[in-house]
């Protein structure tokens, strides 16, 4: 299993060595705590506000980012980019092409696609033009793209930000701006082959990130709907009850049941029948068992779904990942557009006691089949079947960042290889000529932006930022037509003929 | 000069070979035509609209992206990513750290930063929370970040989308959503050293992209203001007259003069005095000449600006790029926040006749010094001097894409190395096992999503998408415990023991 992707081998190894350590108690607690309640952003805001209040110069002027958003510092960017590189290199390994769509769409393109979540869309102000909304996911823009360009077949990935006006008090620890990495296969193919590949990709990415043990829950929208039908849910309530079931990973059954009965008017006995089903989860054998279920086996839709799941498990076994997959009747997925197989990957913590249920720390990847979405855009309703997945980079990032903080690890935020320095005054011109030569040769080089910096300051800069080499030019060197190369780690210095400098540095960098 | 950056050597070489060809007449015409008028998007929209009208099923439902925005197809993404890789690798060569900010900011963070351009900001709808606007550039969010985190010193790059409600009928060929690549140096340093590095970076990037000859116009806001003062512009009109002068690259002098006199109430003789200055451009010698200018030399601000430009040219000469720089008194830069040196890079076409003025195809990079912006966010007004640059990826992309279209060049949009194929029926299971083995070894592999594809279809797929190797498993191979490796280019096939397959493919890929 390749875990390095496109990354510089050593940089990634350093990051992975941090991840590989077993999560200690404080780390586990921190992650749990985060997903249960604290919005780190709001804490940061509160601190900032109080800092500003202390000044009292401009008490009404609080510098901050909008609610639910955050900046990424250079340290955070390094971690983010390593995660994205690993994800994208996996998508490319599976033959996907890249593409991009605008951050906002015509509002009408997004309506009637997200069901109960539609209210969370960010609309743009009507400034005398079109009515626009920020994209809510990357799936609907992809479907719009396929329909608009009459593309019938495409395997693409898309990395981009999406925006949702989630209320932080309801859904804890979620951001309103977040990054998604999507992989989708559009086209009419033989059943379950692309679907199985999507699950293989999720496994490769989660293995590669080494976040710990994980499980992918699988179900099928047709099984969900069939289950509703045989339990006695009126068809008009299928989607809204589906939204309630989708909350089972965040809410207890009794609360979901209460929502369905008290708020959505479902008969209590119907809710209880659903309750019996959604407790079921297991492997391939549960699929076989459900084929025998006296009620479910009477429903045509459910049988179609079960048939596809049976085939899916066959392919997953060939891919060697069947043991990572759990057929889970409580998995419903909130979005309206799914029509077939649906899945969601969750990270598990190793149980402390044998026999204890693994503790889930939330979904980190999800997806499913949506065969009707492209047709909603097409004037003739021509369908293009699609299946895909989305990696929840934000949540993965939070876990990695939290672990790194816990272990007090630092990452280098620059790649500079050489500092051009001098021990003497009035050597700015020499430094400028020298550094231009290095840049022109493709060497990553910096110098201090001072006319006459102290040598010690220059050497400290290397140590604090991790620059491995110093090129030193002074009076003696200039006279002799040489420069000194100093290794920051060993403090060894050697004099090199000025004309051999670039070659010598390149040699050293290729060796290290 | 390194031109390959982080790119796969061959991929970039292919792209560059296209760029390196001299622009032919039709290409030049196409580029000119584009920058003069045609909005390719609107053409595409018109075609799409008429296509949909032909159907007449849903005449009111037109699938399109919002005005001034576009999707990037996989072909376009490949070109875009090559450009971004080259730009970012240059930024990293100069020791910059990455960072990111949200797509939108609190509206109050952006007000009073952009002068007359402020009306072009996209506001979000008030949905019962904060008042938000999409970011208009990456500079103001950077200043906000510095002030918010009390950072006094930072060298960072930022690649991201920005949004401006430009009217396509006024500013032709511009998009409302576009990508910027910014590099900035914040901190109190000795004069002109960071400023010179910014110009060096612009040269490295434009050389690396091989877009043809270019020129960087340089001026200083203090010289612009000094010029206004000695010409008799009332101080209250400095910024608005500056905005007019900024249009000189898009409008003729007589139209700019008309705007200043008729619309902005400037006295005609004042306008004419300005007119004399803005016709001046030249090298270092013009700086010396302006020191002697009877009016300008009486203005303290202008003298400060000229003194800095003198020092700047000294450093640019040491960097070996002085001949690419033109001191140009017509350069004003529209944004309010600049306080010192300003610059703008333009591409030139080789003149057809000796002595002809080079024809400019518009600005592709720009920037300047903004020493007051961070202080606008700080409650105590603490200043952090900054200088930076922004690469206009969109315009560069349009030029590259146009040339590629003209030459009919195609780029590979996937990186797949191996297709797993079979000549026989009922070999899906074997193919699935085989491909999982390749993926797990990090090999980029695809297969057709059919139970029983024809061999010819599979081979055609390789040819049309550029996959170099085919791994073939059939009845005979299965019996003998081998697989065949076929080179798509040479059509040669060899049988390899199944257990040696991964090693053999890796060997072939490393050799090619």
Features:
BirA Bifunctional Protein, domain 2; 43% helix; HisRS-like_core (chains A, B); nucleotide-binding (chains A, B); 17% strand; signal (chains A, B); 512 residues; protein biosynthesis (chains A, B); alpha+beta; nine-stranded mixed beta sheet; 16 strands; identical protein binding (chains A, B); disordered N terminus
CATH topology-level fold name of the largest domain in chain A? BirA Bifunctional Protein, domain 2
Computed over alpha carbons, the radius of gyration of chain A is 28 Å
Which range best describes the helical content of chain A: under 10%, 10-25%, 25-40%, 40-55%, 55-70% or over 70%?
40-55%
Number of helices of chain A: 19
Summarize the biggest pleated sheet of chain A: 9 strands, mixed
How would you sum up this structure, described in words?
Chains A, B: It catalyses: tRNA(His) + L-histidine + ATP = L-histidyl-tRNA(His) + AMP + diphosphate + H(+). Chains A, B: L-histidine binds at residues 137-139, 164, 180, 184, 333, 337-338. The structure is a homodimer of 512-residue chains. The first copy, chain A, is α+β, with helices and mostly antiparallel strands. The first copy, chain A, is 43% helix and 17% strand. Chain A folds into two domains: 74-349 and 360-407, BirA Bifunctional Protein, domain 2; 418-511, Anticodon-binding domain (Rossmann fold, 3-Layer(aba) Sandwich), CATH 3.40.50. Chain A has helices at 9-20, 25-36, 40-55, 74-93, 107-110, 139-148, 193-209, 221-231, 238-246, 253-263, 268-278, 284-291, 300-318, 373-377, 393-406, 428-440, 455-465, 475-480, 501-511; strands spanning 97-98, 104-106, 132-134, 154-163, 177-186, 214-220, 281-282, 325-328, 341-349, 359-369, 386-392, 418-421, 445-446, 469-472, 482-487, 493-497. In chain A, the strands form three sheets. The first copy, chain A, has a nine-stranded mixed sheet. Chain A has a five-stranded mixed sheet with strand order 13-12-14-15-16, sandwiched between helices. A two-stranded antiparallel sheet of chain A has the order 2-3. The interface between A and B is large, with 97 and 97 residues.
């Amino acid at each position: 299993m390749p875990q390095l992707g496109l990354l510089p081998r050593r940089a990634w190894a350093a990051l992975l060595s941090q991840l590989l350590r077993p999560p200690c108690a404080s780390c586990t607690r921190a992650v749990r705590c985060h997903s249960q309640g604290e919005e780190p952003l709001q804490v940061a805001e509160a601190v900032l506000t109080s800092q500003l209040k202390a000044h009292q110069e401009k008490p009404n002027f609080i510098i901050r980012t909008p609610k639910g958003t955050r900046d990424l510092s250079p340290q955070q960017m390094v971690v983010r980019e390593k995660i994205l590189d690993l994800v994208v290199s996996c998508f490319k390994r599976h033959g996907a092409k890249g593409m991009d769509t605008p951050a906002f769409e015509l509002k009408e393109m997004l309506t009637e696609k997200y069901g109960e979540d539609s209210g969370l869309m960010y609309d743009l102000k009507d400034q005398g033009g079109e009515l626009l909304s920020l994209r809510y996911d990357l799936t609907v823009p992809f479907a719009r793209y396929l329909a608009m360009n009459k593309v019938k077949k495409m395997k693409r990935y898309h990395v981009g930000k999406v925006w949702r006006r989630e209320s932080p008090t309801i859904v804890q620890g979620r951001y309103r701006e977040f990054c998604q990495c999507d992989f989708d296969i559009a086209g009419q193919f033989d059943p379950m082959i692309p679907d199985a590949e999507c699950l293989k990709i999720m496994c490769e990415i989660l293995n590669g990130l080494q976040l710990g043990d994980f499980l992918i829950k699988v179900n099928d929208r047709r099984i969900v709907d069939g289950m509703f039908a045989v339990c006695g849910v009126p068809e008009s309530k299928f989607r809204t009850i589906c939204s309630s079931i989708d909350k089972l990973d965040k809410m207890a059954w009794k609360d979901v049941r209460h929502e369905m009965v008290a708020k959505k008017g479902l008969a209590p006995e119907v809710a209880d029948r659903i309750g019996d089903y959604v407790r079921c989860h297991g492997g391939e054998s549960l699929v076989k068992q459900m084929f025998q279920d006296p009620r479910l086996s009477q429903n045509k839709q459910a049988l179609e779904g079960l048939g596809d799941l049976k085939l899916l498990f066959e392919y997953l076994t060939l891919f060697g990942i069947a043991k990572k997959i759990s057929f889970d009747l409580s998995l419903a997925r909130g979005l309206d557009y799914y029509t077939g197989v649906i899945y969601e990957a969750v990270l598990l913590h190793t149980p402390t006691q044998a026999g204890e249920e693994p503790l889930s720390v939330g979904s980190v990847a999800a997806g499913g089949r949506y065969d009707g979405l492209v047709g909603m855009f097409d004037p003739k309703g021509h369908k293009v079947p699609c299946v895909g997945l989305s990696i929840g980079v934000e949540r993965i990032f939070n876990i990695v960042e939290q672990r790194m903080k816990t272990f007090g690890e630092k990452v280098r935020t620059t790649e500079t290889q050489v500092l051009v320095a001098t021990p003497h005054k009035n050597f700015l011109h020499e430094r400028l000529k020298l550094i231009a030569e290095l840049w022109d040769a493709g060497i990553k080089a910096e110098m201090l932006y001072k006319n006459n910096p102290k040598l010690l300051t220059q050497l400290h800069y290397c140590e604090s930022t991790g620059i491995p080499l110093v090129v030193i030019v002074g009076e003696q060197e200039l006279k002799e037509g040489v420069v000194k190369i100093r290794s920051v780690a060993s403090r060894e210095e050697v004099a090199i003929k000025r004309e051999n400098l670039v070659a010598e540095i390149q040699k050293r960098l290729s060796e290290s």
